[in-house]
Every structure is written in structure tokens, then in C-alpha cells.
């Protein structure tokens, strides 16, 4: 008999502008749907949008994406309906896809802790305990964290860490025993679409892509700084894809873009639909993401699966790329390291690029199979202890 699990997540399909957390939940559903009945409570609109999704029933269960999805339009009646679902539906496990979200974690968590007995509560912070993340809106976060500790709410919750770094971050902020934290890496997307060929049409300029939300956390200004310091003999095309999540930050980026030297062809290409991501990566030689921190970074394996090498910071859990010669994780305190990589790639021959792409694809084939990780999720979500 399948177990019923209710997941609260601020962002979910068909939305895609909220980044990785929605992908993380969707990948869990896709891989464990035969053993778990998933019920998802999420927002009725995409991140940074004022209009709700089209073709959905708000404040009702929708059968979508191999699960039941409740698109929550916030009002007093829908809030009472959420409380009723928590207390009276046949639900044995609750999964939270954030630690600090008031609407999708704090509020329903308090209801469960106060009134729901004999259930399991699992919480995945999704990188929110990383030092760089805690610095954002730090006062509110510190106040809630202190209250969480004072009332010892952590004693009834199992925490889900998706990386070894996150495991340590959780331990640093919460007095948890090892048994209260389960390490289970994020599940990859269904990579049946791993590129079958490392061959591509060569272009004169080095083709570099950035795909992510436009926020200070993704650090695109650093990319522009690096590119602006390249020698005038090196020609680069740099295309930027992603929703503008921080308009003030984007204004700073535009000022930098307007001052770029003529050998750097920069263009903002707008947001990109998830169904177009893989085929878009195939058009580029390098994915440049100098992020200040990623809990996982789903877009990195997406790039690698299409034969596109990755240049990123050492704040992401992808050091394994360097061991397989298909990417670089470099410290952000020295732009020269990034410049050297781009200069080296700009001099690659067609044969060298084919070899680099082959290494990316080989790495993907060897590492993006979920079998071991799925077993870890079964223990996390199905274990009755």
C-alpha cells in the first residue's frame, strides 16, 4: 500500500522561475511515485509573477505531474482549508521544502506540531543554512532561529541534508544528533536526453552562456567583470538567460553591459522555459555561473549532460567535475583564475573541444543515474521510525 505524503513548497510546476527547489521536489515525485502518493501544496503563480498559472483550479486538488497539487491562492477560506487538510486528511508524512518560508513552512509546521499526532515531519532547508544565505534578511532569520531553538521545535523534526556541506551547516545551527539528519543527495532529472554526440559546428567566437535567475546570489556581475578584462584579441559571445528577480541588481548589470569592450558580444535573451534548457546548452562551449552559493545547482548537471563544460565557483558542490576534467570550481577572490580558463578555451581547436564535450557526456552517463540516491530517499520518506 502506498504511503500518503504532503509536501509544502513555495514553488512548483508549471512554474520554473523559482529555481532549483521546484526541480528537487519534482524529481522526488518522478522517482518515488510508485511507492508514495504525493500531495503538493504550492503557490498559485510563478515566482515574480502577479498572475496565477493558467488552466489550474485554485484552492482545489489538481491531478498534475503524477501527483495531487493544491495551488494555494491566499485568503482566509483557503487557509482554513489548508488547516483542514493537515488535521483531517489521511496523511502520515509531511515534507517541507524550506526552513524560513512563513506561509509554506512556519505556519503549517506550527499547526502540525500543535495538533497532529503520530506523524513524521521532514524538513529540507535547501541551502538556507549556508553562511551566504543566512546573511540575506539576517535579522528576521536570527529571530526565528532563536525562537525555534528556545521552543525546541527541532526535537520532533527529521532534517534532510542534500550535500555534506549542508549537513555541517545544519549541525552548526541546530543541536541535532546525527540520527536527526539524513543525508540524501538531490535526485537528478531524467537524463534520457543526455547528448549522444560531442560533435558540434565550430564558431569563431567562444560561446559562453549564463542560465539562472538574475540575483546577487548568482553573481553575474562577476562574470561581466571577468569578461571585460579579457585581452582584445579574444572574441567572446556571452548570452544571458534568466528571469530578472532583482531589478535593482539588474540595473547595475546593464550599466556594466553598456561598457563592455567590442570583442565581448553580450546579450540578454530573457527567461527560458525548462523544456528549452537542454537544447539551448548544446549551442554553447561553456556555462559560466560564478555563484555565491548553491545547495545543488540543477542547471550544472543539465549543462554537463549536453556536453557543455562548466566554470563556476568553489561555493557549489561540484568539485568532482575537476577530477573528471569537464569543469572548474574556482575561488571568487581572484578573477585571474577565471580569465585563464576562458583564455585557454578560446585557443582550443575543434578536436580539443570535441574531447572536452566527450568528457562532459561520459561524466554524465557515469554519475547521473539515481539508483543509490533513490534508496536513500526511500529510507528518508518511507521509514516509519
Provide a descriptive summary of the structure in words.
This protein has 14 helices and 14 strands. It has 385 residues and is α/β, with parallel strands linked by helices. The chain has two domains: 3-187 and 370-382, 3-Layer(aba) Sandwich (Rossmann fold); 193-367, Glycogen Phosphorylase B (Rossmann fold), CATH 3.40.50.2000. The strands form two sheets. It has an eight-stranded mixed β-sheet, with helices on both faces. Strands 11-10-9-12-13-14 form a six-stranded parallel β-sheet, sandwiched between helices. Helix 7 (220-228) links the parallel strand 9 and strand 10 (236-241). Helix 2 crosses helix 3 (102-115), helix 7 runs parallel beside helix 8 and helix 7 crosses helix 12. The protein is globular. The two termini are 18 Å apart.
Concise summary:
This protein has helices at residues 20-32, 76-88, 102-115, 131-134, 138-150, 164-173, 220-228, 247-257, 274-281, 299-305, 320-323, 335-346, 350-367, 371-382; strands spanning 3-8, 36-43, 61-64, 67-72, 93-96, 120-123, 158-161, 181-183, 206-211, 236-241, 264-268, 286-289, 309-313, 327-330. With 385 residues, the protein is an alpha/beta fold. The chain folds into two domains: 3-187 and 370-382, Glycogen Phosphorylase B (Rossmann fold); 193-367, Glycogen Phosphorylase B (Rossmann fold, 3-Layer(aba) Sandwich).
Amino acid at each position: 500500500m502506498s504511503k500518503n505524503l504532503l509536501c509544502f513548497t513555495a514553488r512548483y510546476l508549471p512554474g520554473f522561475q523559482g529555481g532549483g527547489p521546484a526541480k528537487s521536489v519534482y524529481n522526488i515525485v518522478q522517482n518515488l511515485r510508485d511507492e508514495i502518493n504525493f500531495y503538493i501544496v504550492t503557490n498559485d503563480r510563478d515566482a515574480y509573477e502577479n498572475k496565477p498559472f493558467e488552466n489550474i483550479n485554485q484552492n482545489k486538488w489538481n491531478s498534475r505531474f503524477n501527483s495531487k497539487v493544491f495551488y494555494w491562492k491566499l485568503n482566509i477560506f483557503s487557509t482554513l482549508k489548508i488547516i483542514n487538510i493537515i488535521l483531517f486528511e489521511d496523511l502520515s508524512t509531511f515534507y517541507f521544502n524550506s526552513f524560513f518560508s512563513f506561509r509554506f513552512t512556519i505556519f503549517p509546521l506550527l499547526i502540525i506540531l500543535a495538533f497532529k499526532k503520530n506523524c513524521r515531519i521532514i524538513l529540507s532547508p535547501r541551502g538556507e543554512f549556508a553562511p551566504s544565505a543566512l546573511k540575506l534578511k539576517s535579522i528576521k532569520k536570527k529571530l526565528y532561529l532563536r525562537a525555534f531553538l528556545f521552543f525546541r521545535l527541532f526535537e520532533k523534526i527529521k532534517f534532510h541534508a542534500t550535500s555534506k556541506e549542508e549537513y555541517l551547516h545544519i549541525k552548526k545551527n541546530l543541536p541535532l544528533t546525527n540520527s536527526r539528519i539524513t543525508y540524501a543527495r538531490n535526485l537528478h532529472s531524467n537524463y534520457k536526453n543526455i547528448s549522444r554526440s560531442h560533435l558540434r559546428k565550430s564558431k569563431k567566437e567562444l560561446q559562453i552562456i549564463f542560465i539562472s535567475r538574475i540575483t546577487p546570489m548568482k553573481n553575474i556581475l562577476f562574470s561581466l567583470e571577468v569578461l571585460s578584462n579579457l585581452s582584445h584579441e579574444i572574441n567572446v559571445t556571452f548570452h544571458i538567460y534568466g528571469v530578472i528577480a532583482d531589478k535593482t541588481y539588474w540595473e547595475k548589470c546593464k550599466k556594466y553591459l553598456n561598457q563592455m569592450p567590442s570583442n565581448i558580444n553580450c546579450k540578454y535573451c530573457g527567461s527560458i522555459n525548462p523544456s528549452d534548457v537542454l537544447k539551448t546548452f548544446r549551442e554553447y562551449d561553456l556555462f559560466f555561473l560564478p555563484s555565491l552559493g548553491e545547495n545543488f545547482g540543477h542547471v550544472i548537471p543539465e549543462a554537463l549532460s549536453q556536453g557543455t563544460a562548466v566554470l563556476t565557483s568553489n561555493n557549489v558542490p561540484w568539485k568532482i567535475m575537476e577530477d573528471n576534467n569537464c569543469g572548474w570550481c574556482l575561488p571568487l577572490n581572484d578573477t585571474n583564475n577565471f580569465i585563464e580558463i576562458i583564455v585557454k578555451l578560446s585557443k582550443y581547436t575543434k578536436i580539443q573541444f570535441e574531447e572536452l564535450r566527450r568528457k562532459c557526456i561520459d561524466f554524465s552517463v557515469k554519475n547521473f543515474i539515481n539508483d543509490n540516491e533513490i534508496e536513500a530517499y526511500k529510507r528518508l520518506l518511507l521509514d516509519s521510525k
